[in-house]
Each structure stands twice: as structure tokens, then as C-alpha cells.
Amino acid sequence: MQRGRHAELSLASLPGKGISLMADMPIERDTLIAQYVGEVISRAMYREPVNTNEVIDARFIGGIARFANNSCSPYCVVERWEVGGETCCGIFSVTAINKGEEITIKYGRAFVRDRVS
């Protein structure tokens, strides 16, 4: 995440899903797909119950990663990293992803894994 590199991605409208995040290149397992960014807000301001004091709300302000849709069998996970004293979140592949496939994560209270670099 320090280098700001990520996979080549695009957005597509998929029937029944709306706007979806798509791979524009083959992606290997354990690859940073994109950094997940948005407005940092308090737990009290967020619309869903969460287990942390702060959350990243990407509904109105955020990068392309906010278009990753939910899946019960996701291709990716969201990981929280400490990089240079800053907390960052990124979407990482847990399996190889083919060009043209949708980038998916599992939504939910505990979908972020902690990592330290």
C-alpha cells in the first residue's frame, strides 16, 4: 500500500447487482486490488452495528474499491494495515482472479483482517 500500486480495474453494470468492480487483468492470489478509502466517522454515526469506534464510510466519498460487491464466496478480503504510523485498508485477493471477473468481498461486522507492516 505504501507504493500506491493496485490492479487494473473498471466498473460495469451487472444485472441484479448494479455497479460492480471488475478485474481488467489477471490477478494473482494475495495481490492488493485497491486501497479502501472514504470518510472516517464514529460508530455512532454509522448506519450498521460495528465492533470498532471508527469506520470508513465510502458511500459518498471514496475510491473505486467501494464498488466491490458482497458475495458469500468472495474472491477478496479487506485487510487493515499499519503503514508508516497510518491505518490503511486494502482489498486483497484470496484466490486468482481472471480478467473480466467481478471483485467481491464479504460484507459484515467482522470482515476486516488486521495486519501490521
UniProtKB/TrEMBL annotation:
Localization (cell): Chromosome; Nucleus
SMART domains according to UniProt: SET
Keywords recorded for this protein, A-Z: Chromosome, Methyltransferase, Nucleus, S-adenosyl-L-methionine, Transferase
This protein's record includes keyword Nucleus: yes
GO cellular component term of the entry, any: chromosome
Domain of life: Eukaryota
GO biological process, one term: methylation
Main location as per UniProt: nucleus
Molecular function terms from GO: methyltransferase activity
InterPro entries: SET2_Histone-Lys_MeTrsfase, SET_dom, SET_dom_sf
SET domain ranges (all copies): 7-108
Protein name: SET domain-containing protein, putative
Organism expressing this protein natively: Phytophthora infestans (strain T30-4) (Potato late blight agent)
